[in-house]
Give the backbone structure.
Amino acid sequence: MKRVVVGLSGGVDSSVTAYLLKEQGYDVIGLFMRNWNDASVTLEDECPWIEDSADALLVAKKLEIPFQVIDMSDSYKERIVDYMFNEYEQGRTPNPDVLCNREIKFDLFLKTALDLGADYVATGHYARKTSTIDENGKEVFQLLKGTDNNKDQSYFLCQLSQEQLSKALFPIGDIEKPEVRKIALEQDLVTANKKDSQGLCFIGKVSLPEFLQQQLKPKEGIIVEVAKDWKGYQREVPIFNNKYEALDFEAKGFSYTKTDGEVVGQHQGAHYFTRGQRKGLGVGGKVEPLFIIDTDVVENIIYAGQGADHSGLLKKALFIKEEEIHWVREDLTLKEDETMEVLARIRYRQPLQKAILHKAKSGMYVEFENQQSAITEGQFCAWYVNDELLGSGVING
């Protein structure tokens, strides 16, 4: 009998995951990961790990499977939280959920499971895994979108390796969310009607400014509004002989100085804000909502523009450094000067966009068919062919 350790989170998805695996004849063990101890930044009425672990225990008892709680809070702080602080300090916006899957669930948690004699680990992600055999007889694992397009979570798994995928199971990946809740109700699981968790992975819903202020001190600066008809947008786009130089220009977009607009307000730290953000600026009296089009953490200036269609928000290309390119399908890795037509997304839930990958010596350019709004440094771009996620990388420009 194959043994599988399920990451029981106290939610309905992992609960049904454990139930389905037991029904399929696996030897199932439930593990709850305690990854956060500080409730001081958690919003009121949001109970973090205590309630969740209690619900996970009740589910394990109902399913009659072994259960234990493991404390990974030190590693979580080091690998996820400290990384987040460092990224925000540099003016980048990290994605902790992607990192959590790569560093915690499918690394530390996986190693713990293997120590318990497990053959696999399973999570309640809405994603699918399959495999094919290559010309050398080697099994190649494929990460596919979840069947439920409204809940597809393959993007959050975009940094997994072949080794990690080989040990992973996603039992609800081919089930739609309403059916998952129906199964939980039929099995009388306490999590059947529980709301989906929100906020940071394993921390819950937090006040991000308060969370960041734990290490990043407030620093008063100015908000500069850049007009839609700013003269910089009237400059002709240079014609390059080198395709990569042109793509680099597209990826970097425009840079601003405080003389390129009007000072319209103040803020408490550019490192607390991100490109494309609308809320939190505290500037009113505008015809259209203000969006952040750029931040300068060195000069501590926020640049904003009116309207979601402001040219400062739009770019047609992005760049990923060589060392931050990751291929789930290592056998499809592009060589220098090779290209690939793909579907790509720059954030969770964004509809897939037509794009072309251009492999340069220094990294990878992703050139979109249509301009994209608020391409944000530090976030992940993931690329697909049909339903399969092939790779991803950290956006650098």
